[in-house]
Structures are given as C-alpha cells and as structure tokens.
C-alpha cells in the first residue's frame, strides 16, 4: 500500500512538473495599438496582449488578444517544409471570430501573398512579386492587375519623401554622444480622402526620445500627396501607415 501511495504521489508530482514546464514555455507580452511591445504597467497605451510559444512542429506561435480577450491575430513563424525558407503565416479575425485575412510571407526575401475573405469566401488577393511590383485583384481573379504598391494600405510619393529625408534629417548630437541608434517607426493615420489625421511614434519603447523627435520633425516637412487605403471591395478607408526612419552610427 505504501509503494502504491508513493507511486501516486510521484505520478502527481511528475504531471504537475510537466504542466509547469509547459506553462514556462509560454511568453506573455503587452502591445500598443500599433502592435509594438510596451511595459506591463503601461495601462494607458495597452491595446493587446500577446501570448507566444513553440509548438510541436517547432514553429513559434503568437496569439494576439484584444481587451475583451478575443483573438484578433494568429501568427506562425517557422520553416517552409517544401521550399526550405523561413516563413510567417498570419491570420486576422473579425468580431465573430471569422477569418478576414491571411498572409503568407517569405521572411528571407520579403515577398508575400495576402488573401481577403468575407463570410468564408475569398474576395480579394494581393501578392508582392518584386520591388514596387504587386499583383492585385478584387471580386474576380480575372480582374488581376499590376500595381506599384499594395493599395490595401495607404501610400505616398516615396521619391519625394526620400529627397526630404536626404536633405533634412540630422543625427541629434546628444544622441550621437550617447551612442543611441535604432529605427523610428512613424505612424500616420490617413483618412478616406488622403489627409493626415494623426502622426505619432509607433515604437516609443524601442528608440530614444531624441531620435523620435527628429524623425517626427522631418516627416512633418512632407506635405503630400497621400493615397488612402482601399478595402477588399475597392472603397477608400481610414487606416494607419508606417514610415521607418533609421538612425545608425557610422
């Protein structure tokens, strides 16, 4: 009887340890509205909770939940077994937990393809096939056309913007002295008619305030044009766009 009792205790401890070990593999982080990580106590900017773990297929899995604990995005990062390249598969869901978008991205070359759904039916598709080269269709695959941008997102005049940054962007001396560097992600909320409604730094926790301030100063010098994003049916919508501004010490 004692041996049986000892075995039961051992089995209980073993199962408990197994569950504990599994739980330790899950990582929880907190994100702002732009899906960048923020400190745990930053209640003011908290928009999403992200849970990540590695599954049996050795993929890194991410569940992104909103304030109502509903999953809005699921991601899997791993190796494509057929092509041997690193890939990310991302799925987005609506308030009824229905799939509305799926993106498969080759992390080695940046190419991707996105599918848009409505009530289970695929209604649009866009694929990045090369530099400033996209294949897009809405409603019917036969309507496929080439475009110089992914118009599901807002756009701007890249040539004009690059010229402005080349002429005006300066490395803040105090930031250089402190050896601060990094990429500032500038977020611009673009309206349906192509107007900037709001400008802010999407990743304030990853870059210094000096670099963020300089990036914001220069982006304000760009007066347009801006092109609104289009939804899966081709209607203009309000949406955020992101402009990376890189600061690197030579």
């Amino acid at each position: 009887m004692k041996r049986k009792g000892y075995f039961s205790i051992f089995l209980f401890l073993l199962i408990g340890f197994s569950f504990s070990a599994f739980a330790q593999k899950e990582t929880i982080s907190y994100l702002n509205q732009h899906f960048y990580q923020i400190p745990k106590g930053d209640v003011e900017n908290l928009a999403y909770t992200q849970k990540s773990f590695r599954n049996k297929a050795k993929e890194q899995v991410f569940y992104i939940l909103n304030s109502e604990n509903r999953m809005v995005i699921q991601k899997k990062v791993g190796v494509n077994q057929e092509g041997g390249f690193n890939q990310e598969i991302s799925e987005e869901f609506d308030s009824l937990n229905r799939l509305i978008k799926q993106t498969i991205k080759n992390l080695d070359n940046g190419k991707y393809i996105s599918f848009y759904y409505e009530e289970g039916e695929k209604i649009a598709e866009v694929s990045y096939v090369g530099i400033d080269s996209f294949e897009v269709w809405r409603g019917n695959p036969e309507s496929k056309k080439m475009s110089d941008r992914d118009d599901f997102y807002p756009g701007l005049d890249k040539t004009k913007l690059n010229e402005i940054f080349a002429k005006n962007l300066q490395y803040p001396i105090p930031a250089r002295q402190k050896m601060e560097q990094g990429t500032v992600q500038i977020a611009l909320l673009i309206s349906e008619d192509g107007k900037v409604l709001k400008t802010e730094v999407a990743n304030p926790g990853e870059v210094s305030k000096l670099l963020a301030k300089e990036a914001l100063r220069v982006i304000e010098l760009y007066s347009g044009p801006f092109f609104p994003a289009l939804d899966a049916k081709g209607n203009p919508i309000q949406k955020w766009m992101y402009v990376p501004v890189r600061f690197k010490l030579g």
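The domain at 22-147 is CATH 3.90.930 (Outer Surface Protein A; domain 3). Residues 1-24 have pLDDT under 50 and may be disordered.
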